[in-house]
Specification:
By secondary structure, this protein is an alpha+beta fold. The chain contains seven helices and four strands.
Length: 230
Amino acid sequence: MNQLLEEFSKLANITTKLTILQAFLAIFLTFVLTIIITQVYKKTYKGNNYSQSFVHTIIIMGVVVSVIMIVIGNNVAVAFGLVGAFSIIRFRSAMSDPKDIAFIFFGMATGIACGLGFYLLAILFTVSLSILIYILYLFNYARKGEATKRLRITVPENLHYENLFDDLFEKYMESVFLQKVETTNLGTMIQLEYLINNKTGISDKTIIDEIRHRNANLKVSMNYVNYEGR
């Protein structure tokens, strides 16, 4: 009887060691693969609000999810318990770029694959999707015209501005939308505000110079509403 207990004890120790080894391998591999994912994210990010904390979040989420999958294993009761525990978590910060959410899921999917022991699948998934993302970035897939800009034109109060710039807009811009008209400088000037998209190859300076010839050389300003390489 004692010998049988000793054999079970040895088997339990071996199983524990194997579990610890698998857990370490899953965590380490997840960390390496999420590092690759964040490098792709850094390389392909085109927004103006890059966050180091978000990059760290991708790595942390991947590793945490891999550990969760190791803990769950085939235990349905533990799985439901964890679902209930995580349901109380609320994320207070909104994602500025929809692609950020995709990278979060990318890291989590890698962690899930590693946590379940599908190491080769995790590696193939990470490498192949990273290559696909970089190809989309390289060829600027689905790019639509130039960046959206806000054009402000100041004209004298007595100038009839309604159709003054129509031919310039047609010549140099893909789209124009008059967003606001307001008086300025104690009512002696009128400021027009447009949302515009330049035609490909048309510089901002060309547009500004042309407008200044018609607005009595008053102030013309242009600033970018957003720039994501679209």
